[in-house]
Amino acid sequence: MKKSIVVIAGACVLLSCSPPAVDKEAAMREVTEMLDSYEQAFAAEDATAIGGTLTDDGTFYGTDPTEAWTRAQVMSIFEQFKADSATSTTFTESSRTITLTDGGNGANIVTQGIYPFISSIVPVRVVAHAVNIEGTWKFDVVSYNMIPRNDDVVKINAAVKL
């Protein structure tokens, strides 16, 4: 009898400690809204708004192998873009995929498009991860990657010759 009570009490404790169910439809909507805000801020070169979508401890990668930035560095880069009227960060997105992870508390995000300030020919794929921190979605990883067609890699290798 005592064992049964202990087992039942233990089960009650475990059940009461489980995290609340995530409304995945609402989470998907919130992630989409955050991504839209990020992309609008990106095109407007709004460093403050971009910083608001990034975690303090995240890592953010550019297209160059040496580019791994903190939140503060990303904000500084966008302040420089804003000051340089010759550079425009507008882009044309051609695809977007969002997949919820971590039971709805995380999201993998992949977008693809043409970013003329990077290349007007070679598409860029943005691979990111966002987390829900106390009800606010933010990126903890963003990586910009040029994605030439496989047929063009030989041409690129011939042109670059390291």
Question: Mind sketching the topology for me?
Answer:
Blueprint: H1 2-17, H2 24-44, H3 47-51, E1 54-61, E2 68-69, H4 71-83, E3 92-101, E4 106-115, E5 119-133, E6 136-146, H5 150-160
Parallel strand pairs: 1-6
Antiparallel strand pairs: 1-2, 3-4, 4-5, 5-6
Report on this model:
Helix content is 41%, strand content 35%. With 162 residues, the chain is of the alpha+beta class.
Q: Can you give keywords for this protein?
A:
5 helices
Taken from the alpha-carbon principal axes, the silhouette is: globular
Which class best fits the helix and strand makeup?
alpha+beta
| Rounded Rg | 21 Å
- Which percent range fits the helix content? 40-55%
* Span between termini: 76 Å
- Helices, by number, come to 5
Question: What is the tally of beta strands?
Answer: 6
What series of H and E elements makes up the topology? Answer: HHHEEHEEEEH
Largest sheet: 6 strands, mixed
- Neighbour order of strands in the largest sheet: 2-1-6-5-4-3
Q: Could you report the average pLDDT, rounded to the nearest whole number?
A: 90
Beta-strand residue fraction: 25-35%
Spans of at least 5 consecutive residues whose pLDDT stays below 50 are none
